[in-house]
Amino acid sequence: YDGAARAMPVRYSDLDLRQSQDAAALLSRLQQAATSSCTPSQAANSNPRMRRAIDRCRQEAVASAVARIN
Fold it and tell me: How far apart, in whole angstroms, are the C-alpha atoms of residue 18 and residue 20?
């Protein structure tokens, strides 16, 4: 596992980001995409160092997506 997230499309044209519930829905979609994008094999998942890298990958993927949307 190299720690890099794969790009995944997240659609949000159906959301009004001025509404807090829609903004929360988008954040949830981004988190789900990051989880899918940053998930390695089961073997890597059991290694504590890899686990931290996976968590960091997910956090960075969400932060990057939010920054692009803003």
Answer: 6
- Distance from C-alpha of 38 to C-alpha of 32, rounded to nearest angstrom: 10
Q: What is the pTM of this model?
A: 0.84
Alpha-carbon distance 63 to 36, whole Å? 15
Give dist(CA 42, CA 20) in Å, integer: 36
Helices (H), the chain: 20-37, 42-45, 48-69
Burial (CB count within 10 angstroms: exposed 0-12, middle 13-18, buried 19+), residue 40 = middle
Mean per-residue pLDDT over the chain, rounded: 89
User: What angle, rounded to 10 degrees, do the helices at 20-37 and 48-69 form?
Assistant: 140
Tokens read off for 7: 């790009």
